[in-house]
Amino acid sequence: MNESILKVLEKLEEQSSLEKSRKVNVLPEDRMLAITKETGELLNMILRLKNAKNMLEIGMSVGYSTIWCAEAIKEHSGKIISIEHTPSKIKRAKENFLKAGIEDIIIIKEGEAMNILKEFSKKENYRNFFDFVLIDADKENIIEYFDTVLPMVSLQGVIITDNMLYPEKYREDMKKYSNYLKTNPNIITITSEIGNGEEITIKIK
């Protein structure tokens, strides 16, 4: 892995660990709420296996997951469109991308995720466009996010959804989400215990 990327990831992992252990006091709106390192490795590996070129991230935060994905997708001259609504997190993410040297492959869309996704859904060029999607945003709208983004995913495209098992306060909502996905004949899906729990979904029709 590129040294610049590795240094930024290590710094963010340290910050995330401090936040989770409550060793630092951070305002709720500034918390990283990042994926785990194991999940980052999983995303990176799937992107490489897919030779993915077009990725959508719903919920960027300060860019930890984005950097893991960018490290893989840059090998195929790919691009990541990442959605985030908190200006302070966007500012931090941009700084992290610059330090990691991957700022040129990430397009940030600022605003409410659902509004941005609905705009994308109106554009024909986004139909069957994304090889890979990461959903790591508010859990209340998780089913609506999925339904809106599915037509934009290419055949055999992958959708990863974070926080299926942890934090426990979301577990009931995420179980409903997983059960909902299993009723869709156009996908296959499985819940993995990696990290905070990852739903791995493939579009087959």
TrEMBL record:
List the residue ranges forming a coiled coil, or say none. none
GO terms assigned for molecular function: O-methyltransferase activity; S-adenosylmethionine-dependent methyltransferase activity
Any Pfam family from its record, for instance, is Methyltransf_3
Q: PROSITE patterns annotated for this entry?
A: SAM_OMT_I
Task: Give start-end of the signal peptide.
Answer: none
Which BP terms in the Gene Ontology apply to this protein?
A: methylation
Tell me which UniProt keywords the record has, alphabetically. Answer: Methyltransferase, S-adenosyl-L-methionine, Transferase
Please give the InterPro entries that the UniProt record associates with this protein. Answer: Cation-dep_OMT (IPR050362), SAM-dependent_MTases_sf (IPR029063), SAM_O-MeTrfase (IPR002935)
Protein's name according to its UniProt entry:
O-methyltransferase family protein
